[in-house]
Design goal:
Strand order of the largest sheet of chain B: 1-2
Order of helices and strands of chain B: HHHEEHHHHHHHHH
Distance between the termini of chain A: 11 Å
Radius of gyration of chain B: 27 Å
Helix content of chain A: 55-70%
Oligomer: heterodimer
Number of helices of chain A: 9
Number of strands of chain A: 0
Order of helices and strands of chain A: HHHHHHHHH
Largest sheet of chain A: none
CATH topology of chain A: Arp2/3 complex 21 kDa subunit ARPC3
Strand content of chain A: under 5%
Mean pLDDT of chain A: 75
Mean pLDDT of chain B: 79
Number of domains of chain B: 3
Number of strands of chain B: 2
CATH class of chain A: Mainly Alpha
Chain lengths: 267, 373
């Protein structure tokens, strides 16, 4: 590993840690803060976390770019991001979204870097075309980018036919839940009723309270997740599973054929 | 129309205003000022139809926010009426008693006002982005992304260009399939459609890559520079080291913020790291040389818009830092009259600058279509 590659990996790791901290902040915060219910991150946190995540994204994307994208990678990435962004318009029940299976397959075939850029940029572009740009965008970009990146780290089972597609589908379902688990974190700490109301103390058992300890916070979050978000995320997970089972094999074949035509090299 | 950098500053000003204020009066002024830009500039834009859609989504969000607050929050002194109460019991491990989720009960005026204010803030964010989307040319905007991100900007602009092409391609594939007697019946028929679409897209990307190569895209230095043997390689190593160092400073600041109750130490460290990171990224951008086919002109009206936007941002930020309570109206426990400072109101009115600046300098013709169609 050259010095430059080492530094790139270090930058990627540090920026990911920092982005993860921005997500997981409620689990570590020592100071009490209880902003009123409503729009998440309403108090002093919003801009800081959004700016921090934006900065981390810029660093990661710029860092991945210095690994020398040539015209072919730029063109393929652009077209795939365009297709994937349009898939967001496909309607579906609950948390279902058709825009996750392609980053998973592309990350798996073209590598982790490609997967991250594909996930993050798809969220950006679909945000632009559906006017879904908002304070949640950096969180979405990070979560989808991580999903694509992790898909690139999966062990490769090429040539195993059905088993490969089945494993990818299981990973798709799992990552559908993980995406929801991570994305809830940006508003969960702020789902607290304003003090004094009869609901405040009782509802408190699944919502965030400062300084109750890490374990207790984790238990509460788990409870919150099981009672509310799980059913929503199930739509996404099942959607990923079905789409990957249905489209996995032909799309994998297609992507591999084009990788050969493009002579992608993994650096 | 205005320079994308002027629009960027305008976006910053209006977003700061609608995100940092939680006062119905200020929010209304900001939303009206944003809307004035659309009314004077945006109606001839090809995407003008979308604006009404955003407005409707915003109204739905306001209604949702009001209903949510009325149903779930019973705090506040001014009782309007009482609804039947629904409660769920949840068995909870590691808890003293069962958890309760309550809907209904006392409906208060305070929760109504709070819901309306929150809804207005969401509406403000939506209207801002809707106006920005309608008035700004995305390609022009992507052309002015920082130099070190130019490749991602190209990826994004390819993707945005490709979306309408894909809609056309999709229709063509469906037509071809229909001609062969294939009818679209269920989910299973997605497979031939999607795979054909993906193939079509990837084929196009090959053509695109060839034409980009033919026009000299990239022009990268030989790979030898990566090993650090020449100047470019050394400066890249230097930049990467500084970026990594800045990230270490940021991470340690985050650690301090999480474990020490005193926020000043961690906050200052993080600010220092952030400034360092932005500075080094700017320096990296200076090393990238880009040639431009079409230059964006910076005119006097752009300076006016930029000055107005910077003023608004500074006034709002300064108020937020010095006395935050002036911007945030909190109706609980008993509803009072929201405060209104005319100075802040004036600063918010400056958001309407794009509607006026071009007319003042006579540089923007108002019947001109922004995209050059």
């Amino acid at each position: 590993m050259t010095k430059s590659q080492f530094l790139s990996t270090l930058i990627l790791a540090l920026a990911s840690v920092l982005g993860g901290w921005a997500f997981l902040y409620p689990f570590f915060s020592p100071t009490p803060q209880r902003p009123p219910m409503g729009m998440a991150h309403t108090d002093d946190a919003p801009l800081i976390f959004i700016l921090l995540l934006g900065l981390c994204l810029v660093v990661i994307v710029a860092n991945l770019e210095t690994r020398r994208m040539d015209a072919r990678v730029v063109a393929v990435l652009g077209v795939l991001v365009g297709i994937n962004a349009t898939l967001r318009l496909v309607p579906g029940p609950a948390g279902f979204s058709a825009m996750f299976f392609l980053p998973i397959l592309c990350g798996y075939v073209f590598g982790a870097d490609f997967g991250f850029l594909m996930g993050a940029l798809s969220m950006l572009v679909s945000g632009i075309i559906t006017s879904g740009v908002g304070p949640w965008l950096p969180f979405q970009m990070f979560a989808a980018g991580w999903m694509g990146m992790a898909s690139g780290w999966l062990p490769h089972f090429s040539g195993r036919g059905r088993l490969e597609v089945f494993l990818l589908a299981v990973w798709g379902a799992l990552s559908g839940f993980l995406y929801g688990l991570v994305m809830n974190l940006w508003f969960w700490p702020y789902l607290v009723s304003p003090g004094g109301g009869p609901a405040a103390g009782e509802l408190g058992s699944t919502t965030w309270e400062p300084s109750v300890g890490l374990l207790q916070t984790l238990v509460r979050y788990g409870l919150f997740y099981l009672t509310t978000s799980l059913w929503w995320d199930a739509g996404r997970a099942i959607g990923n599973l079905l789409l990957l089972l249905l489209l996995g094999a032909p799309v994998l074949r297609l992507l591999r054929r084009f990788r050969q035509r493009f002579q992608f090299s993994r650096q | 129309m205005y320079h994308p950098k002027a629009w960027g500053l305008w976006l910053l000003a209006s977003l700061t205003s609608v995100v940092l204020t939680k006062n119905p009066f200020y929010l209304l002024v900001a939303i009206l000022a944003v809307g004035a830009n659309y009314v004077t500039l945006g109606r001839t834009s090809p995407t003008a139809r979308q604006w009404g859609v955003f407005l409707r989504i915003g109204l739905i969000l306001v209604l949702f926010s009001v209903a949510f607050n009325l149903l779930f929050v019973s705090a506040g002194d001014t009782l309007l009426f009482t609804l039947p109460t629904l409660r769920w019991k949840l068995a909870t491990p590691l808890q003293q008693g069962p958890a309760l989720i309550q809907i209904g009960g006392q409906v208060t005026l305070e929760s109504l006002v709070y819901g309306l204010t929150t809804g207005l803030a969401l509406m403000g964010v939506l209207v801002t982005f809707a106006t920005f989307n309608t008035l700004v040319d995305h390609y022009q905007l992507l052309r002015s992304t920082p130099a070190f991100l130019y490749q991602s900007a190209i990826v994004a602009s390819i993707a945005i260009t490709f979306v309408p092409q894909m809609v056309v391609a999709q229709r063509e594939i469906r037509e071809a399939q229909a001609l062969r007697g294939h009818r679209f019946r269920g989910v299973r028929d997605l497979l031939p459609l999607f795979v054909a679409l993906l193939t079509e897209g990837l084929e196009r990307s090959i053509t695109l890559a060839e034409s980009m190569d033919a026009r000299g895209f990239g022009g990268q230095p030989p790979p030898a520079s990566l090993t650090g043997t020449d100047r470019a390689g050394r400066s890249e190593l230097l930049f990467k080291s500084i970026i990594a160092l800045a990230l270490v400073v940021l991470v340690s600041g985050a650690f301090a913020l999480s474990y020490f109750p005193n926020k000043a130490v961690g906050g200052t460290t993080m600010l220092a790291g952030g400034v360092m990171l932005v500075a080094v990224l700017w320096m990296v951008g200076q090393t990238v040389r880009r040639s431009r086919y079409r230059r964006d002109l910076w005119r006097r009206s752009d300076s006016l818009v930029a000055a107005a936007s910077i003023t608004t941002t500074l006034v709002i930020l300064a108020t937020w830092v010095t006395h935050r309570s002036a911007l945030i109206f909190y109706p609980y426990p008993r509803l009072g009259w929201p405060p209104f400072d005319p100075l802040i109101g004036l600063a918010l009115l400056l958001i309407a600058a794009p509607a006026l600046a071009g007319r003042l300098t006579g540089e923007v013709a108002y019947d001109e279509t922004p995209y050059g169609y």
